Amino acid sequence: MHADLPGPRKIGAIFFPARLWVAIVLLAAFASAGHASAQTVPVPSGNRNIDQPAIPSGALSRTEATGDTFEGKYQRILELLASNKELISKIELAAAKYEIDPIHIAGALVGEHTYNVDALDRLQTYYVKALAYLGSDLTFKHGGQKVVDFVERWQFSRCRSHRDSYDLWACRETVWNTKFRGRTVGSIAWPDDRFGRVFFQPLYAGQTFGLGQLNPLAALRVTDMVVRVSGGKKLSASKAPEVYQAIMDPDISLDYMAAVLRVAIDAYGKIAGFDISGNPGITATLYNLGDVRNRARVLADKNRQLIAEGQAAQLPQENYYGWLVNDRIDDLRGLFNGPKPG
Predict the structure, then answer these.
(1) What sections of 116-144 are H helices per DSSP?
(2) What is the mean pLDDT of residues 221-243?
(3) Cβ(340)–Cβ(103) under 8 Å?
(4) DSSP assignment letter at 176
(5) Does residue 184 have a pLDDT over 90?
């Protein structure tokens, strides 16, 4: 299905067709790469795909193994949200801090608990688990190598100039992918797997945690933003229990969810030239996939090529997870009352 584009725009006495306007705005954004463009192309609401994109086999098998259905899990997380006004208030507060529509947080919650895990019956359970993690002796490591020692290797020296936590951990993940992943370095055969799965899952591989199903590395990336906006203590990879406590405690984790979503919106505006703040399915997709700055760069590069060839630019696309969010947008909007920010 072709994406619906914004209507024609007028500059002076001249009207520009929608596709040409998109190209003009994107070219302006690309010309100022690395800086916020004065204008971005708003991504229309709704799904670009008529049918839901394929659901990964892992999500299917996890749900089938419990004798459950995606619809059943969706209804449970929706009920948890609809029946808990305190939680809705916390979501609205976190969203306001990061200047996003709270529906973006609701969309990420619905996606995670429909396809990845099942919602716990009571919010209080998350607080109890958060305290349990805080009192644990967990360490981020692989084998006998702590991640805080691992990133001191000379291969990571180029990352030391980064001061922001997002840039720092993004750089370290790039070094992992290019210098260690699936390679033998210093007589050690390193796993061919994601950095977050190798070093940041001391309980068992692939697990995310808490109401927002955040992984520890995602939290470490946005911790500087959270400290700037919300206050509190900066997270450190040397203190794994505090990281787990932050992503398990709803009073803290909702701010981290909002920060992750804020980063996605900012990245697609500054790097790819698209305003995705009006499409919760796209922000939910990016929450699910992660690595948003690289994804924005890939889309920007692709659109440069398309525009140079005289073709229409491609809008961001939703995956199966984000498709559900847009498909059930009326359910999610009904959780909140009153006007919302963009």
Answers:
(1) 124-134
(2) 94
(3) yes
(4) I
(5) yes
> Structure tokens of 318?
């939703």
Kind plus residue range of the DSSP H or E element containing 278: none
Cα 126 to Cα 213: distance, rounded to the nearest angstrom = 11
Residue with tokens 């899952």: 201
In the chain, where are the structural domains located? 9-140+200-333
**pLDDT over 60 (residue 34):** no
Q: How confident is the model at residue 205 (pLDDT cuts 50, 70, 90)?
A: very low
Helix ranges (H only) for the chain are 18-31, 57-65, 70-82, 85-97, 102-115, 124-134, 147-150, 165-175, 195-199, 216-230, 240-248, 250-270, 280-289, 292-308, 320-327, 329-333
Q: What is the pTM of this model?
A: 0.84
For residue 155, is pLDDT > 60? Answer: yes
**Which residues, 6+ apart, have CB-to-CB distance to 236 below 8 Å?**
220, 242, 243
Span 184-204, mean pLDDT?
Answer: 86
In this prediction, residue 298 carries a pLDDT of 96
C-alpha distances (whole Å) from 236 to each of 140, 148, 224, 232 are 10, 9, 11, 13
**Per-residue pLDDT, 332:** 96
> Which is it for the CA torsion 155, 159, 165, 169, positive or negative?
negative
The neighbour count for residue 295, using CB atoms within 10 Å, is 19
Pairwise CA distance, residues 10 & 60, whole Å: 48
Strands 274-275 and 41-42: parallel
At 318, phi and psi to the nearest 5?
A: -85, 145
